[in-house]
């Protein structure tokens, strides 16, 4: 007995040592695998599973060409980075491409010398021309849409959606002009976002606005998880970039131009974060001072990827298991037995009995002036007549 | 003179009948320039249909005609086109007879003043001769019947034609000198649309002149005659309004007709000045500005009466023009009435300063009205400012036309008494200006 105990204790000690070693290895391994784990962690940190974009151009008429070009350029970038048309609500006046004043019909250029046509033949405009109203915009955002609205016009976001909202047009201190006939105020916009938050319609929201005094539009936001960027502060005007002498109008606004230059370098896998976006277009290039607001946003902007909002980076889970899918054929056949009903041939009901109407007698008038009135009137007329022409004419009458 | 008048009447009736049968009738009937909320034919038909259904036509905000119009069209609605053509013809004939009489009066007065040596020696060329005055009544009838404004108004079946005819009969009665008939027709005209109230002053002045009663405030006969005429007028007005009560047994028509004219609630665009202004007005100030605008119509009566007391018929003409420019819902039919009287003062042509530009402005604006309406309402590439600009220009043209005629008239009168070649104190040639 005495001989087995030391062996057992030795084995136990070895086992314990091995266990320790294994633990250590495990820890080391864990420590070593810290970077992919961190990466994986970061991958899931933003918490969103789908991306939406609402791009609104609030101006119409030929001289507001640049606003349409702005919106279409952002639309192109957002599509390029992966958000599909079904997840983009594009609201445009859409009167540029086929405007009689457009020297190059069916095109909208965003760069001078007509280098880049952002219109093309695969632009899907969801709200066009007179449908771009404050009411429709707010209905899109809050989801309070009549049941007959088609899917392409709805913002079907949920509480795991990251939404990019881009607005451009003419604005002022606290309002944004829609189609030269109405305005949306910053209070209305803030309330709409709060409705979205309460209805769990977004996970995080990025609001970009490129108008004069754009910063006033995000002053009133009070819902969480909103980050906002604007092209100019209150009291400043956002300026346009460059006119094209061939087309005759300014093609883009400065802020959006430089944002787009920045976005051209982004690809779906890039790790550029929001702080870089805040640096886009300093005052020397933009003349106005771009502003941003991050106090409502819960994550650190440094950790927020551009593709969290501008792209649609799917979370992909790779598995090596095989799954077999079998068709359940048997259940389908007996569902719809052929019904044979003897039906009469259908015809229209007699809605307008023409023959009856033609031969109708004219309706009797139901109202007649009261006898007293007629009597009084004619008595007056006769009195006036005889007063004028003298009573002696009476004998000529009778 | 009867034969040319009959020819003119026939031509006018043919034009109107042709237009009634063409497709333009529907187009013209919808134009806002001839059909205002007060006198559109659609509203008359609507009111009568409501009456057939047992509802008072004044219960909604559609019908703003007086009960006498209800009575008239209740029996004549199937012959509406004939009624309007006959009304136009009656207006023209009334104006013809009135101007014929007026010419006689003018000629008599002129002869009297020449014999009394009231005229300066060198004004022979300014004096009107019977030869040149011979065709004026025919021209007046012609101007009224064949004026495109009148034709369009008739084709649109706007009851403005009836208003015009009542005013024409009033003018005829006044010029013939019958105070009673003049008061009755003036009461009818006021009852139809409120503004002919201002024609009381020129009619009174004319009748006083005709009775040779001097217009002095201290003279007893002046006040006697004035009270007589005023009481005739007011009595007939009261009688007509009371009679209208018995048509529908309600006083509904007073707010619907007169309340509507005075408070201007309907801001459909027309050729007047009220609609745009009140469309932009805040509620807070609208009462004040309604009062200001309405006073503006009545305001010119007294100064004009003081200035033109020797020339009441010209005063009547200017007053008619002021009514049709400044009333709350003017239409082209109102414009046509005072334009018909322009040939009476064709002898002022040599003193008119801006007649070419003004006629161009008026013709241009008349053509631009439908164009800018189409651009605003149908094409959507203009807005109400464009249409209002043309309205403004048209009214400015009219105002300048009237003030031009006013200036020319006064200038001629001055020349008649002071001679044609005016010199200043130092001997250089002088020029008359209207201060």
From TrEMBL, chain A:
The chain crosses the membrane at residues 367-386. It comes from the Eukaryota. Pathway: Glycolipid biosynthesis; glycosylphosphatidylinositol-anchor biosynthesis. InterPro entries: GPI_transamidase, Peptidase_C13. Heteropentamer. Part of the GPI-anchor transamidase complex, consisting of PIGK, PIGT, PIGS, PIGU and GAA1. Interacts with GPAA1. Interacts with PIGT; this interaction, via a disulfide link, stabilizes the expression of GAA1 and PIGK and links them to PIGS. GO terms for biological process: attachment of GPI anchor to protein; GPI anchor biosynthetic process; proteolysis. The active site is at residues 170, 212. Belongs to the peptidase C13 family. Keywords: GPI-anchor biosynthesis, Membrane, Signal, Transmembrane, Transmembrane helix. One of its GO terms (cellular component) is GPI-anchor transamidase complex. Residues 1-33 form the signal peptide. One of its GO terms (molecular function) is GPI-anchor transamidase activity. This is GPI-anchor transamidase.
UniProtKB/TrEMBL annotation, chain B:
Residues 1-17 form the signal peptide. It is a multi-pass membrane protein. The chain crosses the membrane at residues 68-99, 166-187, 193-209, 230-251, 257-278, 285-306, 351-373, 385-407. InterPro entries: PIG-U. GO terms for biological process: attachment of GPI anchor to protein; GPI anchor biosynthetic process. GO terms for cellular component: GPI-anchor transamidase complex. Pathway: Glycolipid biosynthesis; glycosylphosphatidylinositol-anchor biosynthesis. It is found in: Endoplasmic reticulum membrane. The keyword Endoplasmic reticulum applies. Keywords: Endoplasmic reticulum, GPI-anchor biosynthesis, Membrane, Signal, Transmembrane, Transmembrane helix. Belongs to the PIGU family. This is PIGU protein. The gene is Pigu.
């Amino acid at each position: 007995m005495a001989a087995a105990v030391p062996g057992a204790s030795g084995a136990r000690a070895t086992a314990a040592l091995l266990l320790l070693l294994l633990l250590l290895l495990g820890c080391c391994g864990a420590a070593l695998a810290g970077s992919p784990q961190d990466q994986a962690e970061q991958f899931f940190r933003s918490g969103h599973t789908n991306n939406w974009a609402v791009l609104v151009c609030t101006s119409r008429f030929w001289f507001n060409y640049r606003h349409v070009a702005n919106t279409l350029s952002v639309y192109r970038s957002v599509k390029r980075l992966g958000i599909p048309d079904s997840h983009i609500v594009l609201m445009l006046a859409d009167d540029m491409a086929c405007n009689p004043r457009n020297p190059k019909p069916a095109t909208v250029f965003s760069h001078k010398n007509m280098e880049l046509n952002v219109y093309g033949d695969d632009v899907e405009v969801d709200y066009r021309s007179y449908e771009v109203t404050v009411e429709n915009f707010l209905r899109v955002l809050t989801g309070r849409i009549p049941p007959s609205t088609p899917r392409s016009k709805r913002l079907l976001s949920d509480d795991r959606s990251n939404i990019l909202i881009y607005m451009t047009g003419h604005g002022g201190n606290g309002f944004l002009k829609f189609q030269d006939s109405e305005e949306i105020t910053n209070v209305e916009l803030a309330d709409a976002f709060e409705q979205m938050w309460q209805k769990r319609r977004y996970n995080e929201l990025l609001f970009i606005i490129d108008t004069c005094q754009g910063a006033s539009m995000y002053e009133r936001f009070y819902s969480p998880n909103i980050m906002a960027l604007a092209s100019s502060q209150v009291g400043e005007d956002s300026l346009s970039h460059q006119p094209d002498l061939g087309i005759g109008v300014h093609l883009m606004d400065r802020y959006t131009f430089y944002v787009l230059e920045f976005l051209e370098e982004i690809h779906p896998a890039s790790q550029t974060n929001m702080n870089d976006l805040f640096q886009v277009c300093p005052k020397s290039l933009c003349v106005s001072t771009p502003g941003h607001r991050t106090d409502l946003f819960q994550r650190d902007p440094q950790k927020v990827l551009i593709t969290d909002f501008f792209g649609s980076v799917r979370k992909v889970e790779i598995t090596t298991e095989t799954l077999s899918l079998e068709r359940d054929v048997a259940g389908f056949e007996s569902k719809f037995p052929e019904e044979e009903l003897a039906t009469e041939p259908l015809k229209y009901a007699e809605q307008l009995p023409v023959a009856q109407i033609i031969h109708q007698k004219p309706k009797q008038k139901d109202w007649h002036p009261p006898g007293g009135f007629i009597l009084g009137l004619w008595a007056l007329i006769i009195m006036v007549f005889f007063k004028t022409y003298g009573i002696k004419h009476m004998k000529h009458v009778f | 003179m009867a034969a040319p008048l009959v020819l003119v009447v026939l031509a006018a009736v043919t034009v109107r009948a042709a237009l009634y049968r063409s497709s333009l009738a529907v187009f013209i009937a919808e134009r806002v320039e001839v059909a205002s909320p007060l006198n559109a034919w659609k509203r008359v038909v609507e009111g009568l249909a409501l009456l057939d259904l047992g509802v008072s036509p004044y219960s909604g905000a559609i019908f703003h005609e007086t009960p006498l119009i209800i009575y008239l069209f209740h029996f004549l609605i199937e012959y509406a086109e004939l009624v309007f053509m006959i009304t136009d013809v009656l207006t023209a004939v009334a104006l013809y007879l009135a101007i014929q009489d007026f010419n006689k009066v003018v000629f008599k007065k002129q002869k009297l003043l020449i014999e009394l040596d009231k005229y300066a020696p060198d004004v022979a060329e300014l004096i009107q001769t019977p030869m040149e005055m011979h065709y004026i009544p025919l021209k007046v009838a012609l101007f009224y019947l064949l004026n495109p404004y009148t034709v369009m108004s008739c084709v649109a079946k706007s009851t403005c034609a009836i208003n015009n005819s009542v005013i024409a009969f009033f003018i005829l009665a006044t010029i013939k000198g019958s105070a009673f008939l003049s008061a009755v027709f003036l009461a009818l005209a006021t009852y139809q649309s409120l503004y002919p109230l201002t024609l009381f002053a020129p009619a009174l002045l004319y009748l006083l002149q005709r009775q040779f009663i001097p217009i002095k405030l201290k003279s007893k006969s002046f006040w006697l005659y004035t009270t007589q005429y005023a009481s005739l007028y007011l009595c007939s007005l009261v009688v007509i309004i009371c009679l209208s009560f018995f048509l529908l047994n309600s006083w509904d028509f007073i707010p619907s007709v007169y309340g509507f004219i005075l408070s201007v609630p309907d801001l459909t665009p027309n050729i007047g000045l009220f609609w745009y202004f009140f469309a932009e007005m805040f509620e807070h100030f609208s009462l004040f500005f309604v009062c200001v605008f309405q006073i503006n119509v009545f305001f010119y009566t007294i100064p004009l009466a003081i200035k033109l007391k020797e020339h009441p018929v010209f005063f009547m003409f200017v007053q008619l023009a002021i009514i049709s420019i400044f009333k709350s819902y003017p239409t082209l039919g109102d414009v046509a009435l005072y334009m018909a009287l322009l040939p009476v003062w064709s002898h002022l042509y040599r003193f008119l300063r801006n007649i070419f530009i003004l006629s161009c402005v008026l013709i241009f604006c008349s053509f631009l009205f439908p164009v800018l309406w189409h651009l605003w309402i149908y094409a959507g590439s203009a807005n109400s400012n464009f249409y209002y600009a043309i309205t403004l220009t048209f009214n400015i043209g009219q105002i300048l036309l009237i003030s031009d005629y006013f200036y020319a008239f006064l200038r001629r009168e001055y020349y008649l008494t002071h001679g044609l070649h005016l010199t200043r104190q130092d001997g250089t040639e002088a020029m008359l200006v209207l201060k």
